[in-house]
Amino acid sequence: MSVNTGAQKIEELLSRGVENIYPKKEFLESRLKSGEQLTLYTGYDPTAPSLHIGHGITMLKLRQFQDLGHKIIMLIGDFTGMIGDPTDKTSARQKLTRKQVLENCKNYKKQAEAILNFKGSNKVEVKFNSKWLGKMSFEDVVELSSHFTVQRMLERDMFENRMKEEKPIYLHEFLYPLMQGYDSVAMDVDGEVGGNDQTFNMLAGRTLMKGLKNKEKFVLTTKLLVDASGKKMGKTEGNMVSLSDKPEDMFGKVMSWTDEMMSKGFELCTTLPMDEVKKLESSTPNPRDLKLKLAFEIVKTFLGEKFAKSAQENFHRVFQERSKPQEIPELKPSVNDIITVLVESQICKSKSEARQVIAQGGVKINDKKVEAIDVQVKAGDVVQKGSRFFVKIV
After folding, report:
1. What is the mean pLDDT of the chain?
2. Domain edge (last residue) among 258, 289, 320
3. Are 270 and 297 in contact (CB under 8 A)?
4. What is the pLDDT of residues 311-353, one digit of tens each?
5. How many domains does the chain have?
6. Full domain range(s) for residue 140
7. How far apart are CA 140 and CA 182, in angstroms?
8. CA separation for the pair 235, 238 (Å, rounded)
């Protein structure tokens, strides 16, 4: 397949949503303009059943490379996922079984198909890192470890913070960057794309590629989508926009973002040309209207235009016209009290949260505010939390 070396597309790839490029931008730019087909990858550890919008950001960057004719690998970290990446963690992750990680990733390819092309002459290849990491001997691990120092590992912010707080750092967490780094060696890639929080792990791959293959590997880090508190949007933080979300839920979650997130949301999570984004930002004085456009574009990007239109219509009907959605989930509760309904419908995560929401006046039955936690429901009742969550009792 021929490689596109168009200067405009290459500049878009190197600038949009990009935080850093190693060893430097000019190195990667030269490789892209050479006409050589590059091979690059991003790794996705299956620590949850769904990919999320943070993964989507890296996929959009991978698609830019793919559209230029370069070879893309979607690496499933079925081995590293069992260990757990310590990045940004104040304590060790809970280890997963192989059965758990394989169950988690069974829909990853389907979710990624909205962004990446898995068909044709330059289709994305899916690989699993247990193929090589699961076969390594203790001797192999010792050899890899000889390329790094303890001092370098301790430079990681999360390890420094844990030491200050006298929290344990487990040896297997030191080994995680080695494993991710060895992925690059095993696949003999030219480069890696990942979120800026993955810089340390990806640079470990550069170290091993130089030491074991005498090869210069590029690393491209993307900007992170963070919420108002500065935390990245992701699984652990509980504010995740999942790629398996229903269209109306994805639309509603984006509408809950702060105004400060709009610009970065367009840049990282949509395919709208940046000049069009700038025009929108300058010509749309009402932040709510801009957020509606962003929500539409994000759902369109990750789920498709048909679903974006239906989600937009649902939002206007439920939120702006204050009417109930056309399709309301049904529930036959084990016990007919309001607390049980809120928990079993998954409107609330726990009984304590349900009691708190009721105390704050956020729950209604048939449009009437619930005043007590011992209220009983009956078949046909519609229970509502806030303006977005409904369930019908059967």
Report:
1. 89
2. 320
3. yes
4. 999 888 877 666 677 778 899 999 899 999 999 998 988 898 8
5. 3
6. 7-222
7. 11
8. 6
